[in-house]
Amino acid sequence: MLLHIVNRSPATSRVYLQALAGMSPEDRLLLIEDGVQGALPQLVPYYAGLEGRLFALREDLASRGLLGHCDASVQVVDVDGFVILTEEAERTVSWY
Amino acid sequence: MQEPHDDGDLLVILRHGPHGSSWLKEGLDAALVAAAFGRRVSLLFMGEGVTALIADQQVGALGQKGTAATLEMLEMYDIETLLVEAQGLSRLGLSRDDLMLEVECLSPVALARVLSGHRLVLTF
Amino acid sequence: MATTEIYRYLSIASQQYAIDPEGYLVNITEWSPEVAKAMASEDGIVLTPEHWEILEVLRDFYARYEMAPAMRPLVKAVGQALGPEKGRSIHLMRLFPGSPAKVAARLAGLPKPTHCL
């Protein structure tokens, strides 16, 4: 299982398509930096099919005032959770 | 869980075309350095990166060197696994006949498998 | 990488050739066999036909790929051009002691190889 990390918003960048193309069915996706916009209910459909495997970084949501706006299907993790996700994955792959 | 495939030591994903930025050059440099030290390197051209392979590229408008000669050189560094995202090609209306090198086109499933199969993945 | 910094000049028959801090020609178009001989003698190397054929392989490589090769591709290129007996690092080590890819690129008037340390 790989942990894929996306730091761009699906509203402004097509990088999310590359991440999706690179994902195996068991892989996980973590949204960080501007990527956390993808956790909003309006944008989360871009990640349809990733239920249970889609994460967003709490600190980046909070700093953008988006913590309360997150879709319920997205699992919010803090930096410690990020570390755990990294440890659970064989490797991480960054898409930026 | 699926066992990792032993495709090689390093997968370099190239997602940018020639001339527009230095990303492609830097990705190729990373691949060449690893290959010079005996690592088994695969290249995956994704998205706009597929345009790096288009045949008949010229120098830039200001005479700046492109990357085509470097791509020709890959075989001298024993980098022979050249993979291309099939959707990246078709999105631009390109086919394998438009490319300067022999490549393997990857379906979405095969592409994800390649990522799992390398011990290290670098995206450029 | 090619640099433009001039460190010193190499004088050959009243001609001055700019040399960079690592001993490479600053202007690679100034290269001639005379320059190669002068650089080699500074290194204590007398160029024999066996040296010259390697320098030619390097110049062909650069003309084709626009880069100076690291050691592994140099060995491969030499093997392809001159046969497997010569396409071995030991052969290159004997001719261009120390770091053959760098020494030979310097004498061939190429920029420093990019992909070796």
Automatic annotation (TrEMBL), chain A:
A Pfam family this chain is assigned to: DsrH
One BP term from GO: tRNA wobble position uridine thiolation
GO CC field: sulfurtransferase complex
NCBIfam families xref list: sulf_tusB_dsrH
The protein, known as: tRNA 2-thiouridine synthesizing protein B
TrEMBL record, chain B:
This protein's name: tRNA 2-thiouridine synthesizing protein C
Similarity section: Belongs to the DsrF/TusC family.
Organism of derivation: Halomonas daqiaonensis
PANTHER family named among the record's database cross-references: PROTEIN TUSC (PTHR38780)
NCBIfam families recorded: PRK00211.1, sulf_tusC_dsrF
InterPro entries associated with the record: DsrEFH-like (IPR027396), Sulphur_relay_DsrE/F-like (IPR003787), Sulphur_relay_TusC/DsrF (IPR017462)
TrEMBL record, chain C:
UniProt keyword list: Cytoplasm, Transferase
GO cellular component term, pick one: cytoplasm
Molecular-function annotations in GO: sulfur carrier activity; transferase activity
Cell compartment(s), UniProt: Cytoplasm
Annotated InterPro entries: DsrC-like_C (IPR042072), DsrC-like_dom_sf (IPR025526), DsrC-like_N (IPR043163), DsrC/TusE (IPR007453)
Sequence intervals crossing the membrane: none
Enzyme class: transferase
Protein purpose: Part of a sulfur-relay system.
One of the protein's GO biological processes: tRNA wobble position uridine thiolation
Major subcellular site: cytoplasm
Enzyme Commission number, as recorded: 2.8.1.-
Catalytic center residues: C116
Similarity comment: Belongs to the dsrC/tusE family.
Domain of life: Bacteria
NCBIfam families: dsrC_tusE_dsvC
Listed name of the protein: Sulfurtransferase
